[in-house]
Amino acid sequence: MNAKVWLVGAGPGDPELLTLKAVRALQQAEIVMIDDLVNPAVLEHCPQARVIAVGKRGGCRSTPQAFIQRLMLRHARQGRCVVRLKGGDPCIFGRGGEEALWLQGHGIEVELVNGITAGLAGATRCGISLTSRGLSRGVTLVTAHTQDDSELNWAALAQGGTTLVVYMGVARLEQIRRGLLDGGMAAGMPVAMIENASLPQQRECRSDVAAMVKDAQVFGLRSPAILVIGDVVGEQVMQEWVAEAG
């Protein structure tokens, strides 16, 4: 475990959704670098470690990426076992691949540990099956926040025939709505806007593409939240469980 960095997905928030492999890495860690969206309860698995907060959130003061990478490198070169603990999955909008390549380029052993992503966990807890047979032939995960502020190909997404899961979209709801409508998506396409996926305070607002901006304002939707867009949103599964969870 020496001179190694583990890039670990902590899942969407519920600490019981940690994988056994993630727990094992935490139990052996000497340094844990934790993101803002990670539930602090998961740190119960690493009482021996030094915890360093390196949060990165849109619209908030964030730790520079270059600093995070240099810090991981420094501790690894000192022979410590380092865990970079990320919300969700490190390779789904988590810069896991970027960090792994950089560290390996500097001679550091890296291991990636998957975590359950918020789009899946939030949808499931709301009773939405992302690939319900007959309604969706796949899932497309996109982020509304791009590094160069470029627009996604909304026409391709609108006509792709898959369930669309949008991360980091709360601040860009109007652009998403307009892009999908202009791209040919039906105005009545169901939308679920899910805040704090998998946590006890998870909230959900059901709407459609045409009305989602107005409904989100009335609902008071706030980050972190994901959008699930597609026919599957109109099919409720596990209704009793959802009612108990809510």
TrEMBL record:
InterPro entries: 4pyrrol_Mease (IPR000878), 4pyrrol_Methylase_sf (IPR035996), 4pyrrole_Mease_sub1 (IPR014777), 4pyrrole_Mease_sub2 (IPR014776), CobA/CysG_C (IPR006366), Siro_Cobalamin_biosynth (IPR050161), Uropor_MeTrfase_CS (IPR003043)
One Pfam family it belongs to: TP_methylase
MF-aspect GO terms: uroporphyrin-III C-methyltransferase activity
SUPFAM superfamilies attached to this UniProt entry: Tetrapyrrole methylase
Keyword set, alphabetical order: Methyltransferase, Porphyrin biosynthesis, S-adenosyl-L-methionine, Transferase
Enzyme class of the recorded protein, top EC level: transferase
PANTHER family: S-ADENOSYL-L-METHIONINE-DEPENDENT UROPORPHYRINOGEN III METHYLTRANSFERASE, CHLOROPLASTIC, SIROHEME SYNTHASE-RELATED
Protein name per its UniProtKB record: uroporphyrinogen-III C-methyltransferase
Natural source organism: Pseudomonas putida (Arthrobacter siderocapsulatus)
Species classification: Bacteria, Pseudomonadati, Pseudomonadota, Gammaproteobacteria, Pseudomonadales
